[in-house]
Amino acid sequence: MSNFNSKAKSWDLKSRRVQNAKNIANEIEISLPFKKNMTIADLGAGTGLLSYFLSHLVSKVVAIDNSRDMLEVFLSKSNSFKCEIEAIKRDISLESIDLNFDAIVSSMTIHHIKDTKELLSKLYKMLNSNGYIALADLEIEDGSFHSDNSGVYHFGFEFNSLANIAKEIGFKDIEIKSCNPIIKPNGEYRVSILIAKK
Asked: What angle do CA 26, 195, 20 make, to 5 degrees?
């Protein structure tokens, strides 16, 4: 994860990255029944790009990430967020989190987690009754999205398969939403969001 630590300070400087987070946040905003008293978790939050664009809708954002440097940048932006924020340094693929949330959102994180079924099962346990997940990630790609694929376990996802896993675990009201693609010099990469309710 030192790879992400070294990128933390310049992470928000890529306009493409910021625009992607904004596009995903816009889709999540219209898909989930946000209320001002909600506490949400941003899984693999990094510097909080996704949750920043959702912070006006909720009372608290809890950023979960395994990069200390990313979370330091997140906390440094506390005055920019429209709600209370908290950071938890945790590798969710190795550890559980004994907290509950009204929603768990994520952008471009789950392809870095090896066991997708175990992850979805953990997220199910972390949700309050009637809570939601909204997990955005790449659709199937050829491995060219990252210039370095160390720490990448999935070259995108077949989202209907993810939906079936979510259903097995107990999620309901499952939807797949398409997002604007990410345009890179080496190609166009499609992004979708898995939305489901506990």
From this structure: 35
- Tally of structural domains, the chain: 1
pLDDT in tens, the chain (198 residues): 445 554 444 445 457 778 899 999 999 999 999 999 999 999 999 999 999 999 999 999 999 999 999 999 999 999 999 999 999 999 998 888 999 999 999 999 999 999 999 999 999 999 999 999 999 999 999 999 988 898 889 999 999 999 999 999 999 999 999 998 998 888 899 999 999 999
Coil vs helix vs strand at 193: strand
- CATH of residue 17's domain is 3.40.50.150
Q: Are strands 101-107 and 127-138 parallel, antiparallel or unpaired?
A: parallel
Structure tokens of 5? 């630590």
Helix (H) or strand (E) holding 128: strand 127-138
Can you read off the two tokens belonging to residue 126? Answer: 């972390």
Considering only CA atoms, which of 114, 108, 100, 127 is closest in space to residue 43? 108
End-to-end CA distance of the chain: 31
Q: Which domain holds residue 148?
A: 2-197
The Cβ of residue 6 has, within 10 Å, a number of other Cβ atoms equal to: 11
